[in-house]
Specification:
The protein has 215 residues and is mainly alpha-helical. The chain has helices spanning 3-19, 26-64, 72-115, 121-144, 148-168, 172-211.
Length: 215
């Protein structure tokens, strides 16, 4: 998706596309616009990094439970490192989503307040139309992400309990014994990945609205 390439354009379009509606408080409005665009960019970045880390963690678990591992300790350490990274990445995603929700709420509340000061009826109507449309699209991100926290915690619990078990029994028999639980954890893995997709779709919709010109 060329995320890095679009990040600057994404922020710029949001700022330029909305600052005109903020009237006498242009500086304050611009600040809120920047905070909001940055928070959306951060969510987008962190979600995509989380998806990569989920796959890396799942792959390291698959590798760990392959029978006849020549170096169990090395495989276990790789798995443990990936679990720790996923733990950190998941927390970052949840934090960024909370920040986006807060910044968006503040941003659109101020936009609405400033829109009421327009005396030109056409500009006032345009302000209401644009604000309403963008606010509706922005709201889809936290709505779409409602299931992420529960699914993330369920999957992470599986991973950490597997890690804890093997830290006490890192033997071929230990691997054999934990393999059914590892295989079953795929259900929570699939649920987590499925819960992330609506958020990615909502973020893509925001970016499309902001920097794709209508025809």
């Amino acid at each position: 998706m060329e995320l890095k390439k679009h990040s600057l354009a994404f922020c710029t379009m949001l700022i330029l596309g909305t600052a005109a509606f903020l009237g006498g408080c242009a500086t304050t409005g611009m600040d809120r616009s920047v905070k909001t665009s940055n928070s959306i960019r951060d969510v987008d970045n962190e979600i995509r990094k989380m998806i990569v880390q989920i796959d890396a963690t799942a792959a390291s678990l698959d590798s760990l439970v392959i029978p006849g591992q020549p170096d169990l300790k090395k495989s276990f350490n790789s798995y443990s490192d990936n679990v720790d990274k996923l733990d950190s990445q998941g927390k970052q995603v949840l934090k960024r989503m909370d920040e986006m929700k807060a910044h968006s709420k503040e941003y659109f509340a101020e936009w609405e307040k400033q829109g009421e000061t327009f005396t030109n009826p056409e500009i006032r109507a345009l302000s209401v139309e644009r604000r309403t449309k963008l606010a509706e699209i922005y709201a889809r991100v936290p709505e779409a992400g409602a299931g992420i926290k529960g699914n993330y915690r369920a999957y992470l619990t599986d991973l950490k309990e597997i890690q804890k078990y093997l830290s006490n029994d890192l033997t071929p028999k230990g691997i054999e014994g934990i393999t059914p639980a590892a295989n079953k954890s795929v259900q929570n893995l699939d649920a987590l990945k499925a819960s992330l997709q609506p958020v990615v779709a909502a973020l893509d919709e925001i970016k499309t609205e902001l920097y794709h010109e209508s025809k």
